[in-house]
Amino acid sequence: MRLVLLGPPGAGKGTQASNIIKEYDVVHISTGDIFRKNIKEQTDLGKKVKDYLDKGLLVPDELTVDLVWDRLDQEDCKNGFLLDGFPRTLAQADALQKGLEKRNINLDKVINIEVDKNVLVKRLAGRRVCTNCGATYHVDFKPTKVEGVCDECKDHSVIQRDDDKEETVLNRIEVYENQTAPLIGYYKDLDLLYNVDGTLSVNEVFEKIKSCLNNM
Ligand code: ADP
Ligand code: AMP
Ligand code: ZN
Questions:
Q1: Residue 98 belongs to some domain of the structure
Q2: For 117, which of 73, 101, 180, 213 is 20 to 30 Å away at the CA?
């Protein structure tokens, strides 16, 4: 299966991605995770993109598209992939479609997780992430058993993302509304869109996603 997870920051894309990869044979590709890893390791790419992430702005399309295709062309993606946080602009969506056509493959579904802005702010402000293994928590909705310690890898690496601080959060939601929300219509026109109410519980959202994917 070849899937895209669409939705504003904080909608629950990463949370659902970790559910989906346990159940289906797809490789999880999060452009945000790739950028953060490069920033942490201070690679050339990391140095190029750090400012954009700090400000909550989008990394330029060309850089992002090349990075994604390098990843999608790797052997492990041949069976299927799950794009999380890509595409985020119409130009990226076009570049994805063109690349897929060139390779004679297509997307099976675009899952759009819908959540209102006031809920997003609460989710992002309370989000905590493990910088060691990538697990995601929430101070109210999904706390770690021991504060600051990851349930999964037991590392003392659970922190707030820099771009989850309030001023950047509002910026990111605005960037989403202006640049990414138009993709909903784009994929609806391609007859690929599946909308799911992201304000339901994590399990309920996953049940809906499964019923969509199992009935394709
Ligand atoms: P995204 O990848 O779309 O930015 P995340 O998956 O990181 O979003 O989720 C954002 C925050 O909201 C996290 O702290 C996560 O634990 C929490 N969260 C995700 N889905 C739900 C849900 N259905 N109900 C309540 N909280 C959720
Ligand atoms: P995310 O982890 O998806 O919330 O992404 C974090 C940040 O990474 C975003 O605020 C952008 O700065 C950058 N980013 C992630 N994916 C993309 C993309 N497809 N295009 C441009 N920038 C991106
Ligand atoms: Zn961890």
A1: yes
A2: 213
Asked if residue 128 belongs to a domain, the reply is no
CATH number of the structural domain spanning residue 47: 3.40.50.300
| 201 domain-assigned | yes
Amino acid 122: pLDDT:
95
**In terms of C-beta density within 10 A (0-12 exposed, 13-18 middle, 19 or more buried), how is residue 52 classed?**
middle
Q: Which residue from 61, 64, 92, 57 is spatially nearest to 172, judged by alpha carbons?
A: 57
Q: Is the pTM of this model over 0.90?
A: yes
185 alpha carbon – ligand 3 mean position (Å): 36
- List, for residues 69-79, the tens digit of each pLDDT value: 999 999 999 99
Q: For the chain, what is the domain count? A: 1
The boundaries of the domain holding residue 13 are 2-115+168-214
Q: Is the CB of 87 under 6 A from ligand 1?
A: no
Residues with CB under 5 A from ligand 3 (ion): 130, 132-133, 135, 150, 152-153
Q: Find out whether 60 and 88 touch, Cβ atoms under 8 Å.
A: no
Each residue's pLDDT tens digit, 3-19: 999 999 999 999 999 99
Q: pLDDT, tens digit, for every residue of 149-163?
A: 999 999 999 999 999
